[in-house]
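Re-running the complex after MR caught last week's input typo. The corrected sequence lines follow. Everything else is unchanged.
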Amino acid sequence: MFLWSCWPREFLFHEQPEGAVRTNSVLSADDIRRAVRRIAHEILERNQGTDGVVLVGMRTRGVPLAQRLAAAIEEFEGQRVRVGSLDIGLYRDDLPQKDLQARIQPSEMPVDIDGKKVVLVDDVLFTGRSIRAALDALTDFGRPAEIQLAVLVDRGHRELPIRADYVGKNIPTSLHEDVQVLLEETDGLDEVRSAIQEGER
Amino acid sequence: MSDQTATRTDPATIEAQPAVWTKKHLLDVDELSRAEIEAVFETADAMKEVLGREVPRVPALRGRTVITLFYEPSTRTRASFELAGKALGADVINISAGGSSIEKGESLIDTVRTLQAVGADMLVMRHPSSGAPYLVARHMHASVINGGDGCHAHPTQALLDAYTIRSRLGDLSGRRIVIVGDIAHSRVARSNIWALSTLGAQVTLCAPPTLLPPALRRRAEDDDGELLAMPPVRVETDLDRAIEGVDVIMALRLQKERMSGGLLPSLREYASLYQLTEERLARAQTGALVMHPGPMNEGIEISPAVARSLQSVVEEQVTNGVAVRMAVLYLLARGKV
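Corrected-run output:
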């Protein structure tokens, strides 16, 4: 009668063990600030200024990152670059399987992106599937002259031939690891954490 | 160990929001929570952005088949479901009762089984019998969307009405809304009562006693009658009183095809007492919204001047209908795991 209660919960329900997650801080608030400023410099260097540059943040956390990049660029060059936001929910290739709670929000393009140099901004680059969806979404808005990719964290494990042009930090990870980017605007603090399932390493 | 458990909860609380949509079918609004209705609205906002593009098309439902099965005439509902499905990249097939095997005597269940066998992922249906979509939902693996069943329910119309009010007036909480006209035969009214009440609006129904559903008729006579099958609503038989200070007036079509006769002394008398005219509209809040689910009988339930006034959002309702139906198709496709 009490046999079931002896089984580990995760065995019965296919859940991750709840008590066995270990989190490490990977980037502090200062690290994030420095990485954003460096990427802003790199964007300016590569594009020889702000001419024709549009930043497009991918929801959710790519949007505040894009805004921070724009603020840094304005500080360095005195030029305001336009910031858009992109929701890739309608372009995903894994619609039914997961993310029941993921919400779709309107994309906002402040300018016509035809002929522009679009810098796509995301928090974590992982399999590359979100970026593929974002490329599809972007091409529905127009035909940019060039699309570049800026990410705060590259954690590896690509499943598609996609690479970033600007990387805040390369963090080699295992597949059991989860990388969490927390930002002031969305989460109340700036930090990048990695969470590892203990016993699965 | 203790500080590990402290930090461990943070990522989980950030990522895990409650699943807002897990429904497989959309049969009526009475089965939707406020959070679910708001999920539809939020998704519809994103769909509206898609519809505003030069090429209003996204691949979200690519490879899915949406079949519309209509046993009753329809312009708006069918056209907007078809546009919604196509804008999401789905294949859409339209079937009407006339011109299909239904004319040869095929039963409803056999028809939907056939549609399932040819690969329908979602079925939008309209049927003159109340409850027909519920029967179909029990026999199908595909998602069933009620596009209107008899005098019972029309959930997507109610959702688009509430969405239109929200996009004009913001939060519906505490808003006063009067629904006037043929309540007894109106699936639009019934679904709207649920949607608007769930969102916190105060609904008043206004109609001659013969055009109120029996349960409400009793309520209009003595105000003690408890309504079990419906959220609390006010009932008022005098339009001039009902309209006083309201934020929204929703006029309904007089459904001559569902009337067995003897319900109204004459159309002229009905029009003089219940037509939404400019004089009556002046008694409502300034800038109150005028809505009508269509098709309108101008000169009967609504005067032509009011129907074309700046306060009328009738065409906006139709436009929003596509976005809301896209949201419903998308959420149902995603909720079905």
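None of the earlier attempt is carried over here. The CA atoms of residues 71 and 80 of chain A lie 8 Å apart. Helices of chain A lie at 3-6, 9-13, 29-47, 62-77, 129-141, 184-187.
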